[in-house]
Amino acid sequence: MIKEESIWKKRWLKIFTLASIIGTVLGAIGGYIYYRKVGCSTGSCMISSNPYLSVLWGTVMGYLLGDMFSVRDKKEQKN
Q1: What was the pLDDT predicted at 43?
Q2: What is the DSSP string of the chain?
């Protein structure tokens, strides 16, 4: 059971690094703050008029920004 958990943990850590997780959380918070502070009073703005879309957009942008700074292992190339 412990070995199975370790394999699962390694697989997820390859996909979600610490930088991308922090970026995701900060992006979600930033998306909500953007909705509250900037927002759209007329309702015609697709992203900023809906809090769910604003948080979702912030989450995706935060993940992508955080993933840019994650360190990946370089695979050895055989020549």
Answers
A1: 74
A2: -HHHHHHHHHHHHHHS-HHHHHHHHHHHHHHHHHHHHT--SSS--TTTT-HHHHHHHHHHHHHHHHHHT---PPPPPP-
